[in-house]
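Chain A, query sequence.
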Amino acid sequence: MSTATLTPTPTPTASARGGAVHDEGRIGLRNNLRHIGALVRRNMLQIKKDPESMFDALLMPVIFTLLFVYVFGGSVGGSMGGGRQEYLNYLIPGLMAMMGMNIAMAVGSGVNDDFRKGVMDRFRTMPIARSSVLIAKIVVELGRMMVATLILLAMGFALGMELQESVLGLIAAIALSAAFGAAIMWIFILLGLTMKTAQAVQGMGMLVLMPLQFGSSIFAPTKTMPGWLQTFTDYNPLSNLADAARALMMGGPLAHSVLVTLGWTVVITAVMAPLAVAKFRKKS
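Chain A, predicted structure.
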């Protein structure tokens, strides 16, 4: 489907329905996929015109890896009975869990900005499924997340990370991180549709991200944390995702952390995706 197909043109049908198509059931799966493909292309062209929007995906993995490995690697690695090398093997799978959270925040800000510019209002006048606009956003952001993850892994291997399980385990860890990241994006899309400004979305996002990231097993083992904090980390989805990625890449207990992560992914998507689509339809 060409980009020209998405150029909004007034039609009697759209006018009769108040400029919105509410019956998505009449738009078949094939057409939905075509719409999503065209919108993905549109979003990728935006990135091409504004390459600075990729800076977070390109630089964040490098900065976080170097910062934590060389600032905390010696002390935390020593407490784990090893050194900087052992901490590197511990940290990289944990940072994979964090990539999706940080990339997801950009989705909410982008949706909010598109509404302020009137882009989303034009999309809502077209005979396309409302969900296709949001799914296209998630597809593009998942692509950015994969770029960030590949850079992170390249940094890890360059610094000496040793994969202790098979390549299939590594691929499974990437897929699990991507699935959870997509679920989290629905939360930030809903925030982007609810908050008044992109700055408010970022501020609220940081209030959510900071406790979840640092109150988890991403950066350090939880055994030295106070009991109440260990209880929080046990239920923290980022801890379970980080532990699952480590088990898939480095070995260790696997079933519990993977099942909990998949459970969080399904529940978050099942709850937040319909809410986000409904809010997108009704947002004025």
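The two ends are 28 Å apart (CA to CA). Residues 12 and 235 are 52 Å apart (CA to CA).
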